[in-house]
Each structure stands twice: as C-alpha cells, then as structure tokens.
Amino acid sequence: MNESPNPNESSNQVTSRREFIKTTGRIAAASALTGVALPHVHAAGSSSIQLALVGCGGRGSGAADNALSIKNGPAKLVAMADVFEHRLAGSFDGLKKFGDRLDVPPDRKFIGFDAYKKAMDVLKPGDIVIMTTPLAFRWVHFTYAIEKRLNVFMEKPLTADGPTSRKMFKLGEEAKAKNLKVGVGLMSRHQRGFQELQKRIQQGEIGDVILLRGYRMHGPVGSAFSTKWPGSPSELLWQIQRFHSFLWASGGCFNDFYIHHVDHLCWMKNAWPVKAQALGGRHYKTNAEGQPYVDQNFDSYSVEYTFEDGAKMYMDGRCVNGAQDIYKSFAHGSKGLATVSNSNDCDPPSRIFKGQAANRSKMIWESKINPEERNPYENEWRDLMDAIRNDKPYNEVERGVKASLVSSMGRMAAHTGQEIAYEDILNGDHEFAPDVDKLTMDAPAPLVADKDGKYPLPMPGITKKREY
Ligand SMILES: NC(=O)c1ccc[n+]([C@@H]2O[C@H](COP(=O)([O-])OP(=O)(O)OC[C@H]3O[C@@H](n4cnc5c(N)ncnc54)[C@H](O)[C@@H]3O)[C@@H](O)[C@H]2O)c1
C-alpha cells in the first residue's frame, strides 16, 4: 500500500521517501512515479472544453449549472448519464436555460450502470466529467475517467471505508501522474473568507489551535431515515434513491452531512486527527405512524477527535425534530476564538475575537468577500478551470479521501463504541460494497433485507470490529 498511516503526512512524502526520489513538489513527485514528462492535458483550444454529467440528481444538476454559469467555464454539456430516466430528464429540463450550450440530444443521454462509460466515451482527453452519484460509485467512475484522460469534478464524500480509501489514494496518484486536474466538492476550501481565515489562523492570530467544534443539528433531512422497502423499484435502485440510509452507498448521514465541518475544521488546524471516540444512538425507532425505521443511521452523534498534539475536535450531528437547531463551526486558540461557519456548511462571515467569547467589542477581524466570488460552488469551478487552462497542479483527491476517512473514523467510533485510530479505519478490511463495479439493473442490492424487511444495524459494544 502506498499510503502513509500518518494522516498528517502526504502520500507524496511517503512515496518519495520510499523511492529515494528527491522531489520539490507534487508534479515532480508524479513525474518521478511514471518516469515520463507530463503532457498538458486539455482539449485542443481550451475554449472547446466539454462536459459530461454522471449522476443527474440535485447536486449534479447544480454542478453543471455552476460550470456553465462562470466566465471562462466549459463550452458545452454534451452527454448525461443516470440510472433513472426521470432524473436525467428532470436535470436536462432544468439546464435548458443554457440554450445551445446544453447540447445533449437523445443519443447522448445514457441510462444504466454502464451509462457512465458511454457518457465519458463522448468526451475527448482534457474534457471534464462531473461525477455526482452517491459515493459508492466514485472509484468505479474515476477509474474510467483516468483511462480516458479526462479532468474530473467529483462530489464529496469520496469513500466510506478503508479498502475503498486505499483504492482512491492510488487512483489520485494515477490522475496526478497523467497531469489530470481533479476537483473534489468540499466547497468550504473555495470559500474566499475561509481561505483568509485559514491563513490568519496559521499565522497565529488565535494562538495555538486547541479546540475545534462543529455542529450540524436539525430535523431529519435527505434520505437518512427509511422505513421498509416498498417492493418497487428494485431493492438495489431503492437503496440508491435512499442512499443516505445505507453505509455502502453514502457512508450514512455522518459522512454525507458532517464531512464539510470535519474537513474545514481540520484545514483550519492544518492537521488530521489521529483517533476518535464517540457517542451516538437511535432515540426514535419508528416514524410517527409507528412503522420501524430500517436504515443504518443513528439520529445523534457526538464525536471527540484527538490530534497528534493533543488538541481536540468535537463534531456533533443530530437529525431530530423539535430539538434545538445548531449549524455552525468554531476554532478556539490559546489567544482567541474564530467563528468559522456562521451558519450551514460554510456561510460567511467568519470572525476572529480576542478571548474565548464571540463578544462584538472584542472582534478583531471579519471576512469580506468580493461579491463575484461569494458562491463557493462556483469558485470550485473557477479554480478548476484556471488550473486546466493554465496547467497548474490541481488534485484534491488526497485531502478528499482523508476528509472521508476521518469522517468514517468518527462514524465507526460511534457505531462500535470503541476508540478508532486513523490506521484502524485506513487499514480496515470491511469493504461495504466490493462488487459495485459489476452491478446491473437487475442485480441484488449489496445489502439484502431479512425476512422482516430489516438490515444489519450498528450495535456499539456488541459489534466491535465492524460496523455491522
Ligand atoms: N457539496 C455539497 O454541498 C453537496 C450537496 C449535495 C450533495 N452532494 C453530494 O453529491 C452526491 C449526490 O447527491 P445528490 O443530493 O445530488 O443526490 P441525488 O439522489 O439527487 O442524485 C444522485 C443521482 O445519481 C444517480 N445515480 C446513482 N447511481 C448511479 C450510477 N451508478 N450511475 C449513474 N447515475 C447514478 C441517481 O439516480 C441520481 O439521479 C452525494 O455524494 C452527495 O454527498 C454534495
């Protein structure tokens, strides 16, 4: 395995040490890996860069919209892929506002588990594929994109378990070696106010960072809570529709919802935690009509992460109606406090205060963002396009996998009731859906319900080595 067990060491550092190659940067490391000069892969005449969309749901449609909305964005969307015809059709209708830049005739609309290949086959090397299915398919689609020499924008999270993370680290290195540009949808990193805040924290403006706190607490959202499979569509397609309910499909609500705070707080600290212990449970086992929930999520999680220097990070997540809503994040240092996300995943403004209270009279800085760059979802496209057009190193895979692993580490600590180290999750052998690349429309689901329509659940203190 190519990856360092220390989350705070990059895989480049490890590779270069192991191979005794002197490197001065990422591209140099990638070059050394392949032993060949790296071509600048973008479509001939970058004004002709085209897009394909794989996973035409809410975020996929949003990402295509963002890409086509920015100045100097890709020229056209030319192919679309999904496993549901109605999702593709809905997405297509929503993008009609782009006129002839939506250039997807019926023979470039593809449905099925192999649709991703057909959509990517429409592109030429240097074009961009958007991958916005649930995470289970990320490594499958990324493998083919690399083979086709495509630049990539893929949504978070990237992985839900150790074996897939190891695969994705390797694929990230392969993409780097081919000089492909890869953006990962952790948009906090492209929020301009956060970028300034991170610099200030790293320059010591709040002193040593000793405590980070993230809260995402609201009612049940997305498809995190499911009652029994109704019998149609197939169990597989139903699980894909309700992907937040199943660890194989999404990593559950912990990974899918809480990864943004986990990621941006670790970025503020400029380190990844080395271990986690956690609380979590299911308070409500049925819906209001008394039907049992069969998904694999807890409704509350409280994870205590520990960094190498002993600093702590708490991530509290709750999906319970009627309980207090809190959706914010904070960084405490030895000299002051930073309010990081003012609300939601990464809303501005961020602020720095002297002391530990968010007391207005003690405020020493507040983020100001140029109005054209207020939308971090568009900024991630500005940054990706700039890298493609000007051939700048750009590969967000490693940090995307680390954010996913650290999320999985917290989730596993809650689900097992055990302390989980970064190496435990990284080196784990439980791959939730090993054959996801072989799925067909009539294949059984990776998780099959028992005779009562229920799925295996985490049992902290009883099931300790695996989550189910
Ligand atoms: N960065 C963010 O703020 C943000 C916000 C929302 C969602 N997301 C991420 O985007 C991803 C998608 O979420 P969503 O809310 O758009 O879900 P969604 O269900 O609306 O969309 C997913 C789409 O992918 C399709 N799909 C599933 N499996 C497929 C396959 N094998 N091949 C082709 N198509 C397939 C589904 O039919 C659906 O149309 C998730 O990973 C989620 O975490 C990120």
How are the secondary structure elements laid out?
Elements: H1 11-18, H2 26-34, E1 50-54, H3 58-69, E2 76-82, H4 85-94, E3 109-111, H5 115-122, E4 128-131, H6 138-147, E5 151-154, H7 162-177, E6 182-184, H8 192-202, E7 209-218, H9 235-241, H10 247-250, H11 252-269, E8 275-281, E9 300-306, E10 312-319, E11 326-333, E12 336-339, E13 351-354, E14 363-366, H12 376-389, H13 397-416, E15 420-421, H14 422-426
Parallel strand pairs: 1-2, 1-4, 2-3, 4-5, 5-6, 7-10
Antiparallel strand pairs: 7-11, 8-9, 8-15, 9-10, 11-12, 12-13, 13-14
This protein binds nicotinamide-adenine-dinucleotide (NAD).
Residues 54-60, 81-84, 87, 113, 115-116, 132-135, 137, 155-156, 185, 187, 240, 256 line the site of nicotinamide-adenine-dinucleotide.
Protein described:
The chain is α/β, with parallel strands linked by helices and 468 residues long. 32% of the residues lie in helices and 17% in strands. It is built from 14 helices and 15 strands. The chain has helices at 11-18, 26-34, 58-69, 85-94, 115-122, 138-147, 162-177, 192-202, 235-241, 247-250, 252-269, 376-389, 397-416, 422-426; strands at 50-54, 76-82, 109-111, 128-131, 151-154, 182-184, 209-218, 275-281, 300-306, 312-319, 326-333, 336-339, 351-354, 363-366, 420-421. The strands form two sheets. It has a nine-stranded mixed β-sheet. A six-stranded parallel β-sheet has the order 3-2-1-4-5-6, with helices on both faces. β13 and β14 (363-366) form a beta hairpin. α3 crosses α12 (376-389), α7 (162-177) packs antiparallel against α13 (397-416) and α11 crosses α13. The chain is globular and about 60 Å long. Residues 54-60, 81-84, 87, 113, 115-116, 132-135, 137, 155-156, 185, 187, 240, 256 line the site of nicotinamide-adenine-dinucleotide.
